[in-house]
Amino acid sequence: DTAVSQTPKYLVTQMGNDKSIKCEQNLGHDTMYWYKQDSKKFLKIMFSYNNKELIINETVPNRFSPKSPDKAHLNLHINSLELGDSAVYFCASRRNEKLFFGSGTQLSVL
Amino acid sequence: GQQLNQSPQSMFIQEGEDVSMNCTSSSIFNTWLWYKQDPGEGPVLLIALYKAGELTSNGRLTAQFGITRKDSFLNISASIPSDVGIYFCAGHVGNTGKLIFGQGTTLQVKP
User: Fold this and answer.
1) Which of A15, A37, A39, A86 is paired with B41 by a 20 to 30 Å CA distance?
2) Least confident of A14-23, A49-58, A82-91, B70-79
3) What was the pLDDT predicted at B5?
4) Shortest Cα–Cα distance, A107 to chain B (Å)
């Protein structure tokens, strides 16, 4: 019944590895997002897709590649992970002006 | 770019007290949203404001959209321990689809 679900909840990996975070929403929304929350809890928008098309790309390093196979899914692939990528990543979907967030993926790069 | 300045950064209050926090910007926003984030969870929408001057309540929470469209406040009355968390204001940047967030107000409630 979870509206926006992301997996995994925790991800611990070594520098230089490649990893993916998956997100699915069952709300029937057309627009989905990825946000990054840093250690100071600041939420920064990364990407947005509308019906499988990229509409927002906020100066994110091209090591980050979002993929939307259909409008219910927005996955985030990260290549060559760096220490500074450690953060909590949130997926969200949108209805009108309201965003609905998943519970986050805590990524720790060692 | 547009920024939202949220204050105070943190608050430590006694259970039963009322709380007020606010958010300002140098730019106009057409929509203001207030979210709460519990530890280990994603932000959850509390209140959405759509018109300048609008005052909206959700239980013990009341929020207002400033007349100038450059500010908003959130009040919590008669705080309880489960009000603990981080409160974020957020606003949409024009018609870009971008929702940007303030820095958050961390609320702690002493029983």
Assistant:
1) A15
2) A49-58
3) 94
4) 13
- Which residue matches tokens 């995994």? A8
| Residue in A55, A90, A97 closest to B31 by CB | A97
pLDDT tens-digit map of B6-43: 999 999 999 999 999 999 999 999 899 999 999 999 99
Report d(CA B45, CA A110) in Å as an integer. 33
CA distance B82 to chain A (A): 18
Locate tokens 């609008």: which residue?
A: B54
- Chain A nearest-CA distance from B42, in A, is 4
Q: Using CA atoms of B49, A36, A45, B25 in order, give the dihedral in degrees to the nearest 10.
A: 50
pLDDT tens, residue by residue, B97-106:
889 999 999 9
Residues of B in contact with A48 (CB under 8 A): 97-98
Radius of gyration of chain A measured on its C-alpha atoms: 13
Structure token digits, residue B109: 């409630």
B81 vs A: CB within 8 A: no
